[in-house]
Write a structure and sequence with these properties.
This protein is α/β, with parallel strands linked by helices. It has one domain (about 5-280): Spore Coat Polysaccharide Biosynthesis Protein SpsA, Chain A. It is about 25% helix and about 20% strand. It has helices spanning about 15-20, 45-55, 75-95, 110-125, 220-230, 240-250, 255-260; strands at about 5-10, 30-35, 65-70, 100, 105, 130, 135-140, 145-150, 165, 180-185, 205, 210-215, 270-275. The chain has an eight-stranded mixed sheet with strand order 3-2-1-4-9-6-10-11, with helices on both faces. Strands 5-12-7-8-13 form a five-stranded mixed sheet. The two termini are about 35 Å apart.
């Protein structure tokens, strides 16, 4: 089975760790980027740095650069994102059976387990694979991480969309592919994603150590300032308030985690996590 991947270049914070984590699984990686170095909403991106760092982790020449014109300030950012992803997915689909669509701040912790999940999706005649991600919110000075968790500090999974799809899939919204048969993996036999109903089917279960790591907010102040400007979700946040909370929680991780049982907001419950295998993850 031929597996390709595509990535969107412009966010260099974790790009080497992300691509390095699945590099051995794929035959080709399409790197999509705006030729003018702009975000969907028209802000400057770190595109050149991203491409240079990708080249440094491509010893086998798997990377194919695919520039385009994807910035459109008059369009909702999510629609512009969907258009760019579809262009990249179409290119990556050539000669492939499946295509990975991982963001560059997502890390595959266990390539063998991840590949097994793709094989299972194939054997079940699914067209998309949903695979759980653990969201790491911040890294404290001690080197430990604040991880978004469930109410009593158990693992909460995140699914921003399928992380692998059959070649030729049509995307409906960002990474999502509405209406296609999906094979879903979780860290429990019962759904652990608060964004889904409790009755959401789970087709396979893995240990939490095999889940993806999503390092979205594990960044420096400078990287957070860039994320604030270019994120597809930028318009929907009070960033001053969010960043104040982020700094305070980094300074006092155990205080942040202590409030988990009382919080009514499922994405503002935290636990303190040590990840010795990923101690090198430092932007």
């Amino acid at each position: 089975m031929k597996i390709h991947a595509y990535v969107l270049a412009g966010d260099p914070a974790w790009i080497e760790q992300s691509i390095g984590s699945f590099y051995g699984m794929v035959d080709r990686i399409v790197v999509s980027f705006d030729a003018d170095g702009l975000s969907w909403s028209g802000h400057a991106l770190s595109t050149e740095e991203s491409i240079a760092r990708i080249a440094a982790v491509d010893p086998d020449g798997k990377v194919v650069l695919r520039p385009g014109r994807f910035s459109n300030p008059d369009l909702m950012a999510m629609w512009a994102e969907t258009a760019q992803r579809q262009d990249a997915l179409d290119a990556a689909s050539e000669g492939a059976d499946w295509v990975l669509q991982l963001d560059t701040d997502e890390v595959v912790t266990d390539p063998g387990a991840f590949r097994t999940a793709i094989d299972s999706a194939e054997s079940h005649a699914a067209s998309a694979l949903e695979y759980p991600a653990r969201v790491l919110y911040a890294r404290a000075r001690s080197g430990r991480f604040l991880e978004i968790s469930r109410r009593f500090w158990t693992t909460q999974s995140s699914y921003p969309g399928p992380v692998a799809v059959r070649a030729g899939t049509r995307l409906s919204h960002a990474r999502q592919a509405a209406g296609v048969p999906t094979f879903r993996v979780d860290v429990s036999a019962w759904n652990t994603d608060p964004a889904r109903p409790a009755t959401t089917p789970v087709h396979a279960v893995i240990p939490r150590q095999q889940a993806l790591l999503h390092l979205s907010w594990v960044r420096t102040e400078a990287q957070m300032a860039e994320k604030r400007a270019v994120s597809g979700h930028a318009a929907g946040r009070d960033w001053d308030r969010e960043l104040d909370r982020w700094r305070r929680r980094m300074r006092h991780p155990f205080v942040a985690a202590a409030g988990a049982p009382l919080s009514r907001r499922p994405f503002e419950r935290f636990r303190v996590t040590s990840l010795p295998r990923f101690a090198r993850l430092a932007p």
